[in-house]
Every structure is written in C-alpha cells, then in structure tokens.
Design a protein that fits this description.
By secondary structure, the protein is α/β, with parallel strands linked by helices. The strands form two sheets. A seven-stranded mixed sheet has the order 3-2-1-4-5-7-6. The chain contains nine helices and nine strands. It has a single domain, classed as Rossmann fold (3-Layer(aba) Sandwich).
C-alpha cells in the first residue's frame, strides 16, 4: 500500500517484525505526539520501540501522521495496521503489543449503566480501549485526557473509568494532572495522565517536574513579555489580543504577532522538521488537539523503566537509526 493510499484502511494483517524492545499501539493518534514521544523515550533509554498499530479517523490528521511516520515505520502502513474508525476495528486482528497509548475523547457515560461493569462504558470511545485491553492484555497502558475529566459529571465518569480498569480489567491505576510547563514547554496545558500495569506490583511514579527554562520569547525568537503562553486550543482562533478569548495573539518586539504552525510546533514540543502538510488553519487545529510531546516522553520513559526492570536481558543492544525521530 503506497503512502498516498493510507487514508481509508480498516483491514489489518498480523505480520509484524519482532523487535528486542517494546511494541505499542497509538489510538486516537492525531498527528502522532504519542508515537514521537515513545520513539524518543526509547532512544534515550537505549530501548527499541515499534508502533504495530495506530488508529485515527480524521483524514487531515492521517495525512500529517503518514507524512512523518511512513518513512520510519513503513510496516505499520504497508501491513494495513493504520486504521481509521476504531469502532469498526476487529480487536482480535490487532497485533500483540506491550503498551497501549491514546488521548481518547471524553464522552458522558450512561447513568443507567452506572456500576454495571463494562456496560458503563458502552457508547463511548473509552469502551473501545477497554475492549482492546481486555482482549490483548498488554503489559501497560498510558492514557491522556483533559484535566476536567477528574470532575466530569460530578466525578462519576472518572470513578467509573478507574473502577473498570482496576476491578474489571485487573490493572493498577496511577493518575496525575501534568502541565506542559512542567517539562520544558512555555504553556500550562494541564492534562490528566493515566497509567496502569497488568502486573499490579509493578512500581511506578510519575516523573518530577523540571525547571522551565524556555519562554515565549524563545518561541517567537523575539522579546515577548508573556513568559508562559496560552494553552493552544482548537476554536476561537483570531479573537484578537484584547479579547478575553484570545489564545494565539502575543506582543512580540512591541508588535502584535499571531501564532503560526512554526510557533505552534515549538509550543507542543514537535521538532522543526515535523511535517504538517495541510492548510494553516488545519495545522493549528491539529496542534491544538495534539499532546505535549516532552511531557508524554517523560512519563513514557518511566513506564519503560518500570517494565524493563525485570527483563534486562531483553533490553535492545543496538538501537536502529530508523527510530531516530528526536525532539
């Protein structure tokens, strides 16, 4: 399957090259922030990582994803393991993997199903995550969502998610609100990170924040009095610097400047070379929907270290340069 034909694939094949390291799947993949972060984490730790399945339904985002990952992960696409609508995927056909990742949309859970096990999640995209974990039993998962999920529906949604993972799936469950500014990016972008392990005895702690040394002046390459920027969003672009809804206009060297995808990539931790081959408005939407790569990477490193502790003999000896996408 050629790269230009990636965008309507729903049928998967089991053929996956074995690697001496960790395999992962990238759900609700967007433009690939999780994918990039896990590759970077593996490279830093000297552990090979390989994405064996991904899913993203938005065609513009799929275009960006393919433009960046086809070259380093051709098998993912050529074996038809890059799916569109996750709800149409046969879970049994997903290749086996070690780590499940994904920033899933937050949807209301049915009160009628409350406290009724897996039924609680039906009709939500979280239910698809539950089905995959239940069927494939990966060693770990790493999920991301908006921080409001903790309080959504008077905290019932989060409590249901936690109960399903711990009681129905039998995994451990760790969670924390993490800000992009905790890991080197000058925007607050508070997000809820959730991590769990099949082996509940696996020791895990979220990484400690690091001192922020980058400011919006670094993002714009010019003096900006606002040190930490607004959180990138999807809507409301172009509201104007004096509008309370403004998030993309700044005073730079005494003049009003509006964020472009160049600054947006810097604020989200994507490398300058990251390709976003869509219109500027689509690019800003994709960046607003993306994850903060350095924050995801820092947590991914902790997950890999936790998983690797009892299996040092399987640590990759030679990390192939084909995985070297670096922030």
């Amino acid at each position: 399957m050629k790269v230009q034909n990636l965008f309507n694939s729903h049928i998967m094949k089991q053929k996956v090259t074995k690697i001496n390291g960790f395999t992962f799947i990238d759900l609700f993949a967007g433009i690939g922030g999780f994918h990039l972060a896990l590759h970077n984490a593996g490279k830093k730790l000297g552990i090979a990582t390989k994405c064996v399945f991904a899913s993203e339904w938005d065609e513009a985002a799929r275009k960006t994803y393919g433009a960046n990952f086809y070259k380093i992960e051709p098998e993912l696409f050529d074996n038809d393991n890059y799916a569109g609508d996750i709800t149409k995927v046969d879970v049994e056909q997903i290749p086996d993997f070690d780590i499940l990742t994904g920033g899933f949309p937050c949807q209301p859970f049915s009160h009628a199903g409350f406290k009724k096990g897996f039924a609680d999640s039906r009709g939500t995209l979280f239910h698809n995550i539950v089905k995959i974990i239940d069927e494939k039993r990966p060693a770990a998962f790493f999920l991301e969502n908006v921080s409001h999920l903790l309080k959504h529906d008077n905290a019932k949604t989060f409590e249901t998610i936690k109960r399903i993972i711990e009681e129905d799936l039998g995994y451990s469950f760790h969670y924390k609100i993490v800000r992009a500014s905790d890991f080197g990016l000058p925007q607050h972008r508070a997000r809820l990170f959730m991590v769990g392990f099949k082996d509940k005895s696996t020791p895990f702690e979220f990484p400690q924040p690091i001192k922020l040394t980058k400011s919006m002046s670094d993002i714009f390459n010019g003096y900006c009095p606002k040190v930490i920027g607004y959180t990138l969003r999807v809507g409301g672009r172009g509201s104007g610097i004096k509008d309370r809804r403004n998030w993309d206009s700044y005073l730079v060297n005494g003049k009003v400047k509006r964020l472009t995808p160049i600054e947006g990539k810097r604020m989200m931790g994507f490398p300058e070379t990251y390709k976003i081959p869509v219109t500027e408005s689509q690019a800003m939407k994709q960046l607003g929907n993306a994850v903060a790569v350095p924050a995801i990477q820092a947590v991914a490193e902790k997950i890999m270290e936790a998983l690797n502790s009892p299996r040092q003999s399987q640590k990759a000896k030679n990390y192939s340069k084909e995985y070297a996408l670096v922030v």
